């Protein structure tokens, strides 16, 4: 049995992300991924079962990197408002620094494929945010609403704003970001 090569795995992940962003999920094939990664298609099958497995694992890996980026340095003793602000700013920084991964995750998230996959591990990566909203609700800071609704009204608008902003400018206007985060806080505040 051949030993797995981390460099090849990384190349396959990068190729998958790049191709999905360039040509879309449907047009991305195992052969195209292997060619872009500079490996044989047979090599890809050493690491992944098929295209769907490759996409699923690329998505989970990207979500893990996002989760680590967002939550690794959060001060759990800080007030809810500070953690909320910090997490949104970290999300914006991730989008800026890892644009390709972010766009890939957006495509997968908006695809019916995600519903087919059983991605509990990807959903579990959002647990710190869920805990933040739960703690905020217990303290009477957030509206008494479902977690997904709180995310929809607080995180999603910031993400949309960043995507639109970056189409026009390569950097983020910090004063505008402050305003957007304040508006997100107000949208979910009790």
UniProtKB/TrEMBL annotation:
<feature type="DNA-binding region" description="H-T-H motif">
    <location>
        <begin position="29"/>
        <end position="48"/>
    </location>
</feature>
<dbReference type="InterPro" id="IPR050109">
    <property type="entry name" value="HTH-type_TetR-like_transc_reg"/>
</dbReference>
<dbReference type="Pfam" id="PF00440">
    <property type="entry name" value="TetR_N"/>
</dbReference>
<dbReference type="InterPro" id="IPR023772">
    <property type="entry name" value="DNA-bd_HTH_TetR-type_CS"/>
</dbReference>
<keyword id="KW-0238">DNA-binding</keyword>
<dbReference type="Pfam" id="PF22604">
    <property type="entry name" value="TetR_HI_0893_C"/>
</dbReference>
<protein>
    <submittedName>
        <fullName>TetR/AcrR family transcriptional regulator</fullName>
    </submittedName>
</protein>
<dbReference type="InterPro" id="IPR036271">
    <property type="entry name" value="Tet_transcr_reg_TetR-rel_C_sf"/>
</dbReference>
<dbReference type="InterPro" id="IPR009057">
    <property type="entry name" value="Homeodomain-like_sf"/>
</dbReference>
<dbReference type="InterPro" id="IPR054422">
    <property type="entry name" value="TetR-like_HI_0893_C"/>
</dbReference>
<dbReference type="InterPro" id="IPR001647">
    <property type="entry name" value="HTH_TetR"/>
</dbReference>
<feature type="domain" description="HTH tetR-type">
    <location>
        <begin position="6"/>
        <end position="66"/>
    </location>
</feature>
